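Section 3.1: Structural characterization of target chains.
Under the original work plan, the team committed to producing a structural model for every single-chain target entering the pipeline before any wet-lab resources were allocated. The record below documents one such target. The sequence was received from the expression subgroup and is listed exactly as submitted; it comprises 292 residues.
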Amino acid sequence: MSRGHSFASFGGICRRAALLAVLLSAAPVAADTPDPANWTQPIAPFHLIGPIDYVGSAGIAAYLIHTPAGAILIDGTPEPNAAMIRQHIEAMGVPIHGVKWIFVSHAHFDHAGAVAALARDSGAKVAAGAGDVAALERGRSPGEVLYTPRPYPPVHVDRPIRDGDRVTLGGVTLTARATPGHTPGCTSWTMQVREKGRPLAIVFPCSVSVAGNRLVGNKAYPGIVGDFRRSFDRLGAMKADVVLPAHPEVADVIGRARRGALVDPALLGRIVAKSRADFATALQKQQKTNHD
């Protein structure tokens, strides 16, 4: 399949993105609740920018970064998607054994669920934020949440990642930025690409939605409120010409790619501002409930 794939088939997906974004920011999926249909809905993989391809589902992102020494995969999407993600990777010209690293943005089933199978099939090393390693290796979400968390296949982490760590493959370097809150080890990644001779800063932000986290009285994660606030500050200060989040609708990745409008240096700031406001509302509500 050509990396210049047509986007004509993505129009309906893009029109549904705004509604799904609202739902995801307010309520995560519990163990006894069906996943949103588009989390496992196939779409053809397609080229994004520079060496980066989109190989995820319609509703959950997975990003493939090509290098001369192999590829890096960011996130795996839910467990049922493992075979589909492998097919997408291979459709973009990378044999599964060509994937050398898998980065896990955070330890939730919708992003880490397929990672164990993909790591097994590829032989890739897995990297994840140090604060999420224990959760990934037991296959359960970290911290305390206001819903029943969904388990997933345990993931062996070869390299615990800390703020400022770098991973280089084939001359391509990604830098980790710790942005905890959503999970203790939530990790954003940054890299530089050149597109038509122009240098561009790419940010793969980890989620900063509250998404059912217990903000008040969280004994398993007592520093959650401070971590969220520091992460808002950190992400808000980042230079990002292109934003590629784990939930693609947060930045309308599919729609923007279809329109050739991925570059938007103000987008990350807008996302952070909305997330910060949503967090303040959620915190106030939980404080009131806890007081009452």
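The chain has eight helices and twelve strands.
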